[in-house]
């Protein structure tokens, strides 16, 4: 439970007691609980949607769900997404891209990418019908497993950084077992849409990781966050036609 609590207090804004005297090893090994963190976030979003549907129109519910997820996560992964887009869309040299990604200032590319991502996500959330709400449980859980493809299968681009510890602590056995469990849960909740969203998300993130890693010589913590945000939208997009 301590590992789960470490992951929850770092990657969410859920008011929980912060564990004391966390070691570096404990922190980096808490990555194995990220899909469970996603499941908790998903259950909260599902409960919220169930409570709102009798009282509000779809557009309002979509906006509230989007805002609720941002509040639950503190936008921590969106920060990585914006930094990544600033760098990758700059069309500069690999060295300059890494410098731009490390810069905390928000550029035009990050702003445009953020608007596009949130607009698409809002549209998908607002289009969910009562029979489709189980996707809210699967979406954040699947995204927090899929991003680990980049963590475990590709090198880290920097000599140091928060993401480097996750890369070094990752284990294939834990990753594959977690994927098997998530695949079963996704199929149980969504039927055929679950495995399809699982497979397509994994393929797209693998291809993106390979392409970016070849360009930059590896991946970064910002890219890990970007993969989580992109995977949530991919999951919604791919599953949507099968849930209608």
UniProtKB/TrEMBL annotation:
<comment type="pathway">
    <text>Cofactor biosynthesis; adenosylcobalamin biosynthesis; adenosylcobalamin from cob(II)yrinate a,c-diamide: step 7/7.</text>
</comment>
<keyword id="KW-1133">Transmembrane helix</keyword>
<dbReference type="GO" id="GO:0009236">
    <property type="term" value="P:cobalamin biosynthetic process"/>
</dbReference>
<keyword id="KW-1003">Cell membrane</keyword>
<dbReference type="GO" id="GO:0008818">
    <property type="term" value="F:cobalamin 5'-phosphate synthase activity"/>
</dbReference>
<comment type="similarity">
    <text>Belongs to the CobS family.</text>
</comment>
<dbReference type="GO" id="GO:0051073">
    <property type="term" value="F:adenosylcobinamide-GDP ribazoletransferase activity"/>
</dbReference>
<keyword id="KW-0808">Transferase</keyword>
<feature type="transmembrane region" description="Helical">
    <location>
        <begin position="169"/>
        <end position="190"/>
    </location>
</feature>
<keyword id="KW-0812">Transmembrane</keyword>
<dbReference type="InterPro" id="IPR003805">
    <property type="entry name" value="CobS"/>
</dbReference>
<keyword id="KW-0472">Membrane</keyword>
<dbReference type="GO" id="GO:0005886">
    <property type="term" value="C:plasma membrane"/>
</dbReference>
<feature type="transmembrane region" description="Helical">
    <location>
        <begin position="223"/>
        <end position="243"/>
    </location>
</feature>
<keyword id="KW-0460">Magnesium</keyword>
<feature type="transmembrane region" description="Helical">
    <location>
        <begin position="106"/>
        <end position="126"/>
    </location>
</feature>
<feature type="transmembrane region" description="Helical">
    <location>
        <begin position="31"/>
        <end position="49"/>
    </location>
</feature>
<feature type="transmembrane region" description="Helical">
    <location>
        <begin position="56"/>
        <end position="78"/>
    </location>
</feature>
<dbReference type="Pfam" id="PF02654">
    <property type="entry name" value="CobS"/>
</dbReference>
<protein>
    <recommendedName>
        <fullName>Adenosylcobinamide-GDP ribazoletransferase</fullName>
        <ecNumber>2.7.8.26</ecNumber>
    </recommendedName>
</protein>
<feature type="transmembrane region" description="Helical">
    <location>
        <begin position="197"/>
        <end position="217"/>
    </location>
</feature>
<comment type="function">
    <text>Joins adenosylcobinamide-GDP and alpha-ribazole to generate adenosylcobalamin (Ado-cobalamin). Also synthesizes adenosylcobalamin 5'-phosphate from adenosylcobinamide-GDP and alpha-ribazole 5'-phosphate.</text>
</comment>
<keyword id="KW-0169">Cobalamin biosynthesis</keyword>
<feature type="transmembrane region" description="Helical">
    <location>
        <begin position="133"/>
        <end position="157"/>
    </location>
</feature>
């Amino acid at each position: 439970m301590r590992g789960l609590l470490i992951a929850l207090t770092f990657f969410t804004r859920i008011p929980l007691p912060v564990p004391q005297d966390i070691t570096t090893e404990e922190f980096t090994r808490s990555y194995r609980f990220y899909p469970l963190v996603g499941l908790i976030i998903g259950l909260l979003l599902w409960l919220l949607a169930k409570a709102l549907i009798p009282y509000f129109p779809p557009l309002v519910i979509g906006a509230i769900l989007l805002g609720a997820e941002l509040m639950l996560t503190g936008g921590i992964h969106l920060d990585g997404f914006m930094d990544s887009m600033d760098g990758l869309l700059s069309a500069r040299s690999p060295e300059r891209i890494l410098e731009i990604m490390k810069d905390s200032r928000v550029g035009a590319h990050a702003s445009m990418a953020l608007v596009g991502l949130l607009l698409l996500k809002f549209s998908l959330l607002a289009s969910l019908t009562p029979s489709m709400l189980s996707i809210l449980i699967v979406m954040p859980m699947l995204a927090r497993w899929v991003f680990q493809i980049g963590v475990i299968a590709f090198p880290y681009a920097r000599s140091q950084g928060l993401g480097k510890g996750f890369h070094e602590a990752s284990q294939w056995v834990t990753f594959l077992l977690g994927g098997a469990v998530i695949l079963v849960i996704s199929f149980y909740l969504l039927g055929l849409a679950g495995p399809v969203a699982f497979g397509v998300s994994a393929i797209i993130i693998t291809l993106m990781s390979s392409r970016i890693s070849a360009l930059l010589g590896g991946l970064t913590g910002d890219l890990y966050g970007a993969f989580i945000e992109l995977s949530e939208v991919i999951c919604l997009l791919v599953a949507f036609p099968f849930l209608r």
